[in-house]
Amino acid sequence: MKRTSKIIGGIALVAFGIVWALELLDVISISLEGWWALFIIVPCFINIFNDRRKAGAIIGCGIGILLLLAARSIIPWNDIWKYMLCLIAVVWGLTLLFFSNKKSSDRRHNSEHAAPVVLDDNIEVNFGKQEYSYDGQPFEGADVHVSFGFVGLDLRDADIRDGAVINVDCSFGGIQIRLPKGVCINNRIDTTLAGVDCDCCTQPTDGAKTIYLKGHCNFGGIEIK
Predict the structure, then answer these.
(1) Sequence-separated (6 or more) residues with CB below 8 Å from residue 145
(2) Looking at the predicted structure, is the pLDDT value of residue 82 above 70?
(3) Which of 211, 219, 138 lies closest to 174, judged by CA?
């Protein structure tokens, strides 16, 4: 597959270079307005064949095409963000319909034979849903990246280190954090068209452990309970 993607990328670049050279020599006369969008379209198109998570590559390719159409005045610049939201909604919906169920089925099918899950402190979820339980395990913090998806962290039975930090980068998604009693949260999240709903201790008391929540949340929500 990598060989195929290299061939596709090579052909695209060679063809673009030849056409541009012929246009510069006045051999042919075509409009290359918006040509810069190809630097978005071609890499994303190649990644469709390379990347296991194809949704991001498809969206990137689609956005590149929309920019090219806008640059050539086929669609108005003022409305391009509406087309982008439509594209994101369609790709996200198709991903949830045709890929999420398959992955869940595969996890259920392989769960009896799978090795014990090793919880990673670097969590990344794109176009999907993942839930993590730290039952009986130490928790010293985590980096959580969510884009068009959902992450659940169950820390109710975890061995939480006082001062643990959860760094959050959430865009068009949601995060739910479940804490045990006696643990306080120090919320330092910057939000843009998003919200943080905290239904737990926010004022540290003597003997209580504190978790620091830092990062950004855009067009999404974080629930702490």
Answers:
(1) 122, 123, 124, 125, 169, 170
(2) yes
(3) 219
71-76: which pairs have CB atoms within 8 A and are 24 or more residues apart?
A: 71/33, 71/34, 71/36, 71/37, 72/31, 72/33, 72/34
- Residue 185 · residue 209 · CB < 8 Å: no
pTM for the model stands at: 0.51
Q: Which long-range contacts (CB under 8 A, 24 or more apart) does 35-44 make?
A: 36/71, 37/64, 37/65, 37/67, 37/68, 37/71, 38/12, 38/64, 38/68, 40/64, 40/67, 41/65, 41/68, 42/9, 42/12, 42/13, 43/9
pLDDT tens for residues 93-127?
776 666 544 444 444 344 343 333 345 678 888 76
- For residue 32, the model assigns a pLDDT of 57
Q: Look at strands 195-198 and 174-178 and give their pairing.
A: unpaired
Residue 68, H or E segment: helix 54-71
Alpha carbon separation from 197 to 45, 168, 189, 213, 217 (Å, rounded): 39, 15, 11, 12, 12
Place of tokens 């999907």: 128
- The amino acid that residue 53 corresponds to is R
Cα–chain center distance at 180: 28
The tokens for 142 are 């985590």
Torsion angle of C-alpha atoms 34, 40, 45, 50, degrees rounded to 10: 170
Mean pLDDT within 40-52: 69
Answer whether residue 51 shows pLDDT above 70: no
d(CA 42, CA 61): 7
